[in-house]
Design brief:
This protein is of the alpha/beta class. The chain has 3 domains: 176 residues, Rossmann fold (3-Layer(aba) Sandwich); 71 residues, Helicase, Ruva Protein, domain 3, CATH 1.10.8.60; 173 residues, Peptidase M41 (Methane Monooxygenase Hydroxylase, Chain G, domain 1, Up-down Bundle). It is 44% helix and 10% strand. The protein contains 18 helices and 14 strands. Strand 4, helix 6 and strand 5 form a beta-alpha-beta unit.
Length: 524
């Protein structure tokens, strides 16, 4: 008898197959949701959109009396870290309703039919506690386009998606359950999920602008003791492209750095060092570098900086360093844009190509040979030149055409494009390669001419950088003025073409040397 009881307990246990059909959604009761719209900053447009959803939950009768139908689903789309989950919790907190939160991957298990059963159980629990909110984070893990897998393969995910579609269609008009989903891959979602009657509302939760970043910093700065010299407006200006999660991490890093230095309050220098740490990685002061390598790295980074300071249409240089950082970067040159840029012209992109090649051009001029330190620069330069030709229509030879075979996510910058089989003829692909090479060659000549005409300045910058290890923009400009030679460079005529760049601006902020792994820091 004892053995029989033991078997029954094992079979009915919490982790058994019999309990797999229960939803793993975590229920937050009304009193457990403490987040409100007052805790959300920097994304005012999204908040305004969702205030109407709160009204749907609070007073549904007002809309139903006029024959209106309460929206069944709200889809939050945007880059990672912008606050989509917090927004969903804020809606529940403002409306004072239960909140069911779970991830799209929580539905699918190794057992067939478990996902569909969990979907049905989740909706049943929500209906019993109506009005309520069901929030599915990372919806793309569950709602990808059906038929995208291998023919005859495992279709448990598709069955789960079908169950979700059926449940959303089965809602009556006399309830107040709203399904909220969040994704940064909306292009991968099944069209059946996106149609009216399911996810009716699409709310963009985008990267904050400079005013939004300042508001977010003010929210996170409430919990730390700040020095009087901290200027959050300047911090916001120094962090273009940062999302809410980045800014929260920055405030925390600044507090940790100040505590490590035995400071009584968080200083402005701690914020500036925190920005550098987030963008370029952890400083490795204990790493010993051979003197010859150190001198070459100083020359390389000085080349980047001098080209950036000499050409028009470039972002201002903020700092140059030959102290190793991150995963293998021996040095870097940090640029910070003066404002948030949504459009980049052809002239600006051409200047960026030249800045990227400034390091390898400096090595060739000074040492008459190059090193492996330019590998990352060449990779990003080639990628940018190819996008100019295939995506931005900036090739006179190929015309204003879109030739790219890559499918990029609008919200996952630098995530790696999915390249499908090319639909272009071999002759077209060859023309594309020739145009990419032409752009890179022209940029290299521009960088080489710029540095050759200012070789004395280049060598002085490299020598000072060897001695200082970290050079400020002020020192760099002073050296350039003292060593200025030859006629002033003429600006490149502005191009009439403009292109929308979706990549994160902060990722266009630093150029690093040997072994720089792309830690979300894109070269300029």
């Amino acid at each position: 008898v004892g053995g029989f009881i033991f078997v029954i307990r094992r079979v009915g246990g919490a982790g058994s197959a019999m309990s797999f059909g229960r939803s793993r959604g975590r229920l937050y009761a009304q009193e457990d949701v403490h987040v409100t719209f007052a805790d959300v900053a920097g994304i005012d447009e999204a908040v305004e959109e969702l205030k109407e959803v709160v009204e749907f939950l609070k007073t549904p009768q007002k809309y139903q009396a006029l024959g209106g139908r309460i929206p069944r689903g709200v889809l939050l789309v945007g880059p990672p870290g912008t606050g989509k989950t917090m927004l969903a919790k804020a809606v529940a907190g403002e409306a004072g309703v239960p909140f069911f939160g779970l991830s799209g991957s929580d539905f699918v298990e190794m057992y067939v039919g478990v996902g569909a059963a969990r979907v049905r159980d989740m909706f049943q629990q929500a209906l019993q506690r109506s009005p309520a909110i069901i929030f599915i984070d990372e919806l793309d893990a569950l709602g990808k386009v059906r038929g995208s897998g291998a023919p005859g393969g495992h279709d448990e995910r598709e069955q789960t998606l079908n169950a979700l579609l059926v449940e959303m269609d089965g809602f009556g008009t006399d309830h107040s359950v709203i399904v909220m989903g969040a994704t940064n891959r909306p292009e991968t979602l099944d069209p059946a999920l996106m149609r009216p009657g399911r996810f009716d509302r699409h709310v963009l939760v985008d990267r904050p602008d400079i005013k939004g970043r300042e508001k977010i910093l003010n929210v996170h700065a409430r919990r730390i003791k700040m020095s009087d010299d901290v200027d959050l407006k300047r911090v916001a200006k120094l962090t273009p492209g940062f999302v809410g999660a980045d800014l929260a991490n920055l405030v925390n890093e600044a507090a940790l750095l100040s505590a490590r230095r035995e400071d009584k309050r968080v200083t402005m220098k701690a914020f500036e060092d925190g920005i550098e740490r987030v963008m370029a990685g952890l400083e490795k002061t204990s790493r010993i570098i051979v003197e010859d390598v150190k001198r070459r790295v100083a020359c390389h980074e000085s080349g980047h900086a001098l080209v950036a300071a000499s050409l028009p249409h470039t972002d201002p240089v903020h700092k140059i360093s030959i102290i190793p950082r991150g995963m293998g970067a021996l040095g870097y040159m940090l640029q910070l844009p003066e404002d948030d840029r949504e459009l980049l012209t052809q002239s600006e992109l051409q200047s960026r190509l030249a800045v990227l090649l400034g390091g390898i051009a400096a090595e060739q001029i000074v040492y008459n040979e190059t090193s492996t330190g330019a590998q990352n620069d060449l990779q990003r330069c080639s990628d940018l030149a190819r996008r100019m030709v295939t995506e931005f229509g900036m090739s006179p030879r190929l015309g204003r055409m879109y030739y790219s075979d890559a499918q990029r996510s609008p919200f996952l910058a630098g995530s790696g494009a999915i390249v499908s089989e090319s639909v272009h003829a071999e002759a077209t692909r060859r023309e594309i390669d020739l145009e990419v090479k032409r752009l890179v060659d022209e940029a290299y000549r521009t960088a080489q001419d710029t540095l050759t005409s200012q070789r004395a300045t280049l060598e002085r910058l490299a020598a000072d950088l060897m001695e200082m290890e970290t050079m400020s923009a002020e020192h760099m400009h002073r050296v350039i003025e003292e060593n200025r030679r030859g006629p002033k460079l003429m600006a490149v005529p502005p191009a009439s073409l403009e292109v929308t760049i979706e990549d994160r601006p902060a990722e266009d902020a630093a150029t690093a040397s040997e072994g720089d792994s792309d830690r979300g820091v894109q070269a300029v």
